[in-house]
Every structure is written in structure tokens, then in C-alpha cells.
């Protein structure tokens, strides 16, 4: 995750953080709305570029700490299958964040672990499915995905008026909850000319309920007796960031984790029409005054997001597994590798969490985020049970 500048929200990268478009300085973990935030890891974006740009030896301390936490979380996950290693890792990371997360020497490695390592885990998951299975899962997810998008965005518009949440903050929380969390906020913020503190508030809100979803949804799924397919659809449509989707799915089961990535891919692509529509609305609003650039100097036309590189990698490996027979032992080893990489990434995200930032976010965006999260989760679960 990257630094949030107070006065500028630059042009952005899409959900999943691919492409060359510069993302806003927005982390996955919550930040203070009043101060420039330190660099923190997330599943991609500027954090990924920062992690790659530093010398390799500077990344090793943070990577080693994330791996150590993941190594502790793995047996916990085996002992408590309902919890799972990824969830155990993020909980341990949050508990240790006060002592370790703020150490400057660890930040490059934590950023690398939470971004690049997670992306590699998603790519490796591609070995577990064929392209035919990817297409089948993606198409079957459309009714649930479109339904939850419509319900969430409509509810967000009503809540914003009722709670009197600032317009830019309401848009960021609504789109972040409906589509793909921090990366949706990154894609939309320059289009609506969101202020720095609004970006920070929205990120804090989205991050909080991502963690809640990862902790609660797997036990709820087991309680309701959801199949692997059903839970993958629930996780892919009701959870926001890629890291949280993968963590929730992998905690429930290997098949659920793999299919949830496909559902997430389909959901991610919805940010493209949303950015285009918002850009058209802003241009229409500015037409009379001839304003094409916001107060922060960023144009409002909106840039079309690109498909994340690691989703492309996922599809490439799915294509390879469609035409090449991967031995069962190798496939099993790759499945275990992907889960451990996910656990390392979640440990890094937990270690980078700014718990105090959640308290500074204020009650209105948190109330809006909670209601939206609840609405999306309930509607997604209802639609999953209906279509299944």
C-alpha cells in the first residue's frame, strides 16, 4: 500500500492494480485522514511498484517477518480448519502490528509480500482450473454479481442522503463496497476529484469490513452447509479486495478459493463501465463552467482501467492446464504453495494495519460502510441460494 498525499489524488490503476496508470496514494489498511500516511503494503498498486523499485536486500527483513508469521499461522490453520491459515495470519499480523508494523526497515518487504507475493499466489491458482471451468464459473456468477452491484449502488445513494455523507466520500465507499474495495476507490477517486481525507476515510472503512468478512463468512458458510461452488460465489461477490476474496475462499476450501478468483475477475471488470459513467457525469456537470481539471490538478475525464496482470497470468496458466496434463502430485504441491503464498501476503497486510486509523475515521462513513457491507452480504447470500 502506498502513501496517501493530502492535497493530490493522482490518476489511478484499476481493480487488481494492473497497467501503467498511476494509482492514487491509497492503501488497503486504514490511514489517518489528517496526515500523510506511511507506505503500507496492499495487494498491488503503488505499493507494488515501490516494493519492486527498492533493492532486494532491503526487502528481505520484511519478507522474513511475514514468512515467520505465516509459518506460525499454518499449523493454527490446520488445527482450526474453520479459521484457516490465511485468517490466522491476518489476525496474528494485526496483533503484532503495533510492535512491528511501524518499523521502517520492514516496510519494503511487507509491501512486497502484500502485493507481489499475493499476485503470484493468484497466478499459481490458475494451475487448478481449465479455461472451460473458468468460463463456466464466470458466466454462472453474472446473475449474482449484477444483482449485488445494483442493490449496493442503489443503497449507497440512499444512505448518502440519509446520513449526509459528503458526496465524494459516499461515492468512494459505495463503489469500493460494490466492486473491489481499495482498488475501486483508486480507480474512481480522480474521476470524482476526491479529496485526500475522503480517500483515507473510505479506505479505512472498506478495510475494516474486509477483515470482518474474512473472519465471519467461512464459519457462516459452514453453518449454512454451503458447497464449495456456492461459497466461492458468495466470497467473490460479497467480499471486496482480492486479498480478502482469496483468503476467505481458501479458508473455506481449495476449490472455493480457486473459483472465487474467477468470480472476482468478472466482478473486477465492472469497474470499467462505472468509471466511464462517472466520468461522463462529471464532464456533464463541468460543461457549463468549462472545468476539466479538479482543484488538485487532476483531469476528471477518467481513464479506462486495464485488466490486472496477475488475472491475465491466472488465465494463461488455466489455458496451459487445459492442454497439458499436470501430474496430480504436482497439482497438489502447487495448491499448497498458493495457500502458503496467500498466508504470507495476509500476514504482511495484518502487520501493516493502522488500528488507530479506524478510530479516526468517524462514525458516518463507518455506519454507511457497515450497512452496505451487510446489504451486499445478505443479498449475495440470498441470490447464491436462489440461483443454486
* Overall number of structural domains: 1
Question: How many H/I helical runs?
Answer: 16
Overall spatial form: globular
Spans of at least 5 consecutive residues whose pLDDT stays below 50 are 1-14, 16-52, 291-302
Structural class: mainly alpha
Radius of gyration: 19 Å
Would you kindly provide a written description of the structure presented here, covering whatever features stand out?
It is built from 16 helices and no strands. With 388 residues, the protein is an all-alpha fold. The chain is globular and about 65 Å long.
Give the helices and strands, then pairings.
Blueprint: H1 46-53, H2 56-79, H3 85-101, H4 107-125, H5 131-163, H6 167-178, H7 181-188, H8 196-224, H9 228-238, H10 242-252, H11 254-268, H12 271-286, H13 309-323, H14 328-351, H15 355-360, H16 363-387
Short description:
Helix content is 70%, strand content 0%. It is mainly alpha-helical. The model is unreliable at 1-14, 16-52 and 291-302 (pLDDT under 50).
Output the keywords.
single chain; 388 residues; mainly alpha; 16 helices; globular; disordered N terminus
